[in-house]
Write a structure and sequence with these properties.
The structure holds two protein chains of two kinds. Chain A is mainly beta. Chain A has helices spanning 25-29, 217-220, 244-249, 332-341, and strands at 77-79, 122-125, 133-135, 141-145, 148-160, 164-175, 179-182, 190-194, 197-203, 210-211, 229-237, 256-265, 273-283, 286-292, 320-323, 327-330, 354-357. Among the domains of chain A are: 133-290; 294-365, 2-Layer Sandwich (Herpes Virus-1). Helix content of chain A is 7%, strand content 29%. In chain B, 41% of the residues are buried. Classes of the chains: A mainly beta, B alpha+beta. Chain A: It is an enzyme of class 2 (transferase).
Chain lengths: 365, 153
């Protein structure tokens, strides 16, 4: 048959349903970990078609490495594929991914359904993309301005490997190339420069905030028309602070921005709260969306019983994410062994469409 | 020896089962075959099996954890999802098996099955019918069998 890969699933009789599922299964007898909510549905941004995304290669970064802002490390996230305009819906089980190592990573249209559909699971290594400025999304707060209690100031913690600037936009909507424009011309964006440094505290300067009480809660708590977010934090690495090499390598696309889109919630009597809807990274003319991975805890140190070991061999560290459910529960060897005989995620039993191996410089997640 | 190439996972699971046993459950490997476990489950309180000590055998097939352990009751038990050979009708032992499950979680599931008999998905038709037509009487029979066969004597 000349199959080009050994990853096709062999039929294994024991994984076929042998009888009716036990009616108690979903209540009392299923394994404990609940499946996470599925990734949010693709929003309804509509952009003109972009050229097919490609994975650019960069020269190595000469910048010293305090906290490496690879997104696969710090907060255990991975970059979704470059999205134009938004992550394409993963192809059906018989669709094929084109590995990113090839010159184009656009999707091939799903082939016509073959008579016996064989699940085909790609196993690829995650490309790490360095993020120079990272806003800790769980630290974003709205504080009262001491000089005017009606005004609210944005504060958060962030890491910056280079100098740059933070821009706060209100009620802003995304336009081409990750630029943002406000819906209200008289509310000007607030731009503040920063110097590089880890775990910096940002606080919007007094007098530059807006009076949130002016807006109905409904307008604050969801993006209007699905487009304009009440709060957009744009953290830009200054291209001047990149090395000469890096500047030369990216003459037109030196802009590197991390964008945090948020809504503002308020319950009766409680202060305003910021809820981050998504984070985007705009790097070298590519738009990436940040998505969380499940199954790694940030706080627990690596040790034998921390639950960070592969659930299958219980020996190796977990380093492979199952997509689309984003469970990180296996080492790469066990992941390969698993998909040789089953296409179900061990945690949630969703079909596996793709495996992504994630490594940082030290070789573990 | 069958034990010479025991996967690390099985060794780890065994160590944890022995050092941190789940309440009401004990499992210890056989001396001559580390893939064969002698299991005891105490009948859950407020179930017809309360006060009983149920022996089971559990075997880890070569494919484990890609394939489910094979588990069987050795103690006679009156339960709609367990037949007279001790075989257990439990989805996670069949099509709902996941390699993320372990010996411990399997035994906890079996313990839970004792607390919640499910006559709508029977393995033993007669017992299930009994359960559905006259549950009080079926429960009495289960208690009687527990006294007779699972007294731990």
């Amino acid at each position: 048959m000349g199959q080009s890969t050994s990853r096709r699933r062999d039929d294994h009789p024991q994984i076929r349903p042998s009888h009716q599922p036990h009616p108690l299964s979903s209540s009392s007898y299923s394994p404990p970990p609940p499946p996470p909510p599925p990734p949010p549905p693709p929003p309804n941004y509509i952009y003109p078609p972009y050229p097919p995304p490609c994975y650019p290669t960069r020269p190595s970064h000469p910048i010293p490495s305090p906290p490496q802002q690879f997104y696969t490390t710090g907060s255990y996230r991975y970059f979704a594929r470059p999205t134009y305009p938004y992550p394409p819906i993963p192809p059906p089980a018989n669709g094929r991914w084109v590995p990113p190592s090839s010159s184009s990573s656009s999707y091939l249209p799903p082939p016509p359904p073959p008579p016996p559909p064989l699940p085909h699971v790609e196993h690829e290594k995650a490309k790490t993309i360095k993020n120079y400025v990272n806003v800790h999304k769980d630290t974003i707060r709205l504080e009262e301005d001491e000089s005017d209690k009606d005004q609210h100031l944005v504060s958060f913690t962030f890491d910056a490997l280079v100098d740059g600037s933070i821009t706060i936009h209100y009620f802003a909507k995304e336009e081409a190339d990750c630029n943002f424009s406000g819906e209200y011309p008289d509310i000007m964006p607030v731009r503040v420069s920063f110097q590089k440094g880890v775990a910096q505290k940002f606080r919007q300067p007094s007098g530059t905030g807006i009076d949130l009480g002016f807006f109905p809660i409904d307008d604050l708590s969801k993006p209007s028309d699905g487009y304009a977010f009440p709060l957009v934090i744009s953290a830009q690495a200054s291209s001047q602070s990149l090395s000469v090499d890096e500047q030369q390598s990216q003459p037109d696309s030196a802009v590197r921005v991390q964008i945090t889109l948020a809504v503002i919630e308020k319950k009766n009597g409680e202060p305003y709260r910021v809820k981050v809807i998504k984070q985007i990274l705009w790097v070298e003319g590519e738009r990436y969306e940040l998505q969380e991975l499940f199954g790694r805890s940030e706080s627990e140190p690596e040790d034998d019983n921390s639950g960070q070991e592969c659930v299958i061999c219980m020996g190796e560290p977990r380093n492979t994410a199952v997509l689309p459910c984003r469970h990180v529960c296996m080492c790469s060897e066990c992941a390969k062994a698993l998909i040789a005989q089953s296409n179900k995620c061990p945690i949630c039993r969703q079909p596996v469409e793709k495996l992504m191996e994630i490594k940082d410089k030290s070789g573990s997640l | 020896m069958a034990n010479s190439n025991l996967p690390r996972r099985i060794i780890k699971e065994t160590q944890r089962l022995l050092s941190e046993p789940a309440p009401g459950i004990s499992a210890s490997p056989s001396e001559d075959n580390m893939r064969y476990f002698n299991v005891m489950i105490l009948g859950p309180t407020q179930s017809p099996y309360e006060g009983g000590v149920f022996k089971l055998e559990l075997f880890l097939p070569e494919e484990y954890p890609m394939a489910a352990p094979k588990v069987r009751f050795l103690t006679k038990i009156y339960h709609p999802n367990i037949d007279k050979l001790g075989r257990i009708c439990l989805d996670i032992l069949k099509d709902k098996w996941s390699p993320a499950l372990q010996i411990r979680t399997v035994l906890l599931s079996i313990q839970a099955l004792l607390s919640a008999p499910n006559p709508d998905d029977p393995l033993s038709d007669n017992i299930a019918k009994h359960w559905k037509t006259n549950e009080a009487e079926a429960v009495e029979t289960a208690k009687e069998w527990t006294r007779l066969y699972a007294s731990g004597a």
